[in-house]
């Protein structure tokens, strides 16, 4: 994989140039993507290399894939559906503009599922093409895992950053809700949609996010031994044996490296929050995509069409009740961090499922999307077949640097174990 930090260091030392790094990325895309299918559209090669040569800013020389749910003025934006084939927005999404202003090179649009929902895309997992890369940020996770780009954007409404990161063995970072603007991304659920990022490691994704947002997100050493809450939750049995073992192993490694491990029971309010996620999501999509549904519903996938229809049928009082439940869940999530620095919980139910008929289950992600807490997929663990088993670090709302630094600390501990 390509490392954001390593590329920056090599450029700073004069051993390579931004143009050379972007050319290298485009060469890898040309070689590898026909078999993986991570890209929906590519930038013009000559123009991209020329722009990289003239770029300035901390991310000059960093190649980036943009999930095809974000508007881009220079590339088509299809939202993962033929309904928008050839569509060209006039302006970039806010986060795309932020990335360009930081000096990075947008080399292409990465494949997403239909409107970033559950209908699988054509993208294959680069670690084993017989397995799903997850979704909906399937192309972004696969492009980073294959070393085609150094970083990529994603969105998460249920589990669409953390889960594909876990399946592809890369770092996925879902920031605190609204830390990164969603302006210019096709809305699905405005109460839940969250912009996220992918890179090779926690340190790399932190560096990328720090440069893009101009916030102090770079990883740092913990000032004192980490207090890690082991959060198995009431859906623990949804995790397969391999994932349950991986979470236990991660906690064991963390304890051996000096962390304090605290067993946490799931509060009633958080269990209720997980249960109300679908009501909020579906009601929102029933409004956000009403015109798409009324105009093109007969050309949508069955699962999307039925989800929008079910959302349109939810009475507003039921939605308001779910929102009240979500508020209580957010308060309960804040209370978790009175005794621990971060929480450790599965990133997915297990390793990437075989086949491309499903993108996997978001059941271990959607609670933290609802509460808005920052989450980072931790890499380094795998099952007996060598497929990644991701665990996620969750921190207090707004404590994004804590989440990223703890994930980096745990990744280094896993590598050293």
In short:
This protein has helices at 4-12, 18-36, 45-54, 94-101, 138-145, 162-168, 202-213, 241-256, 268-288, 290-296, 302-312, 316-336, 366-371, 400-416, and strands at 39-42, 63-67, 105-110, 151-156, 171-174, 194-199, 227-231, 260-264, 342-346, 375-378, 391-395.
| Number of extended strands | 11
Terminal-residue CA separation: 21 Å
Report the average pLDDT across residues. Answer: 98
Main sheet summary: 11 strands, mixed
Structural class: alpha/beta
- Report the β-strand fraction as a percent range: 5-15%
Shape: globular
Fraction of residues in helix: 40-55%
Question: Which regions have little confidence, pLDDT < 50, spanning 5+ residues?
Answer: none
Supply Rg: 20 Å
Number of helices: 14
**Which strands sit side by side, in order, in the main sheet?**
1-3-2-4-6-5-10-11-9-7-8
H/E element sequence: HHEHEHEHEHEEHEHEHHHHEHEEH
Can you describe what's shown?
The mean pLDDT is 98. The protein is an alpha/beta fold. An 11-stranded mixed beta sheet has the order 1-3-2-4-6-5-10-11-9-7-8, sandwiched between helices. The protein has 14 helices and 11 strands. 41% of the residues lie in helices and 13% in strands. The chain is globular and about 55 Å long.
């Amino acid at each position: 994989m390509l490392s954001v930090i390593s590329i920056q260091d090599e450029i700073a030392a004069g051993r390579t140039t931004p143009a050379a790094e972007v050319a290298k990325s485009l060469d890898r895309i040309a070689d590898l993507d026909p078999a993986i299918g991570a890209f929906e559209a590519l930038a013009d090669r000559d123009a991209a290399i020329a722009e990289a040569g003239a770029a300035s800013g901390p991310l000059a020389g960093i190649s980036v894939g943009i999930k095809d749910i974000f508007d881009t003025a220079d590339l088509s934006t299809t939202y993962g559906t033929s309904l928008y084939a050839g569509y060209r927005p006039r302006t970039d999404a806010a986060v795309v503009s932020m990335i360009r202003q930081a000096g990075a090179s947008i080399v292409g649009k990465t494949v997403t599922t239909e409107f970033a929902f559950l209908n699988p895309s054509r993208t294959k997992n680069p670690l084993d093409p017989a397995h799903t890369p997850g979704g909906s940020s399937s192309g972004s996770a696969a492009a980073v895992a294959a070393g085609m780009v150094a970083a990529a954007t994603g969105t998460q409404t249920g589990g669409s950053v953390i889960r594909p990161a876990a399946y592809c063995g890369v770092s996925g970072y879902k920031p605190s809700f609204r830390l990164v603007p969603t302006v210019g991304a096709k809305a699905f659920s405005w109460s839940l949609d969250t912009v996220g990022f992918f890179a090779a490691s926690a340190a790399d994704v932190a560096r990328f996010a720090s440069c893009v947002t101009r916030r102090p997100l770079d990883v740092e050493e913990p000032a004192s031994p980490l207090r890690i809450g082991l959060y198995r939750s009431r859906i623990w049995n949804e995790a397969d044996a391999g994932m349950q073992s991986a979470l236990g192993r991660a906690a064991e490694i963390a304890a051996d490296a000096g962390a304090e491990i605290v067993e946490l029971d799931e509060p009633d309010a958080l269990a209720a929050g997980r249960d109300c996620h679908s009501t909020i999501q579906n009601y929102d999509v029933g409004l956000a995509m009403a015109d798409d549904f009324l105009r093109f519903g007969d050309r949508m996938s069955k699962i999307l069409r039925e989800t929008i229809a079910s959302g349109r049928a939810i009475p507003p009082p039921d939605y308001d009740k779910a929102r009240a439940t979500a508020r209580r869940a957010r308060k309960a999530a804040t209370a978790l961090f009175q005794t621990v620095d971060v929480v450790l919980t599965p990133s997915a139910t297990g390793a990437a499922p075989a086949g491309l008929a499903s993108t996997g289950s978001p059941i271990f992600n959607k609670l933290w999307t609802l509460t808005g807490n920052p989450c980072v997929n931790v890499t380094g663990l795998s099952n007996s077949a060598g497929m990644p088993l991701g665990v996620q670090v969750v921190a207090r709302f707004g404590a994004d640097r804590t989440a990223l630094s703890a994930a980096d600390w745990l990744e280094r501990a896993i590598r050293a174990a």
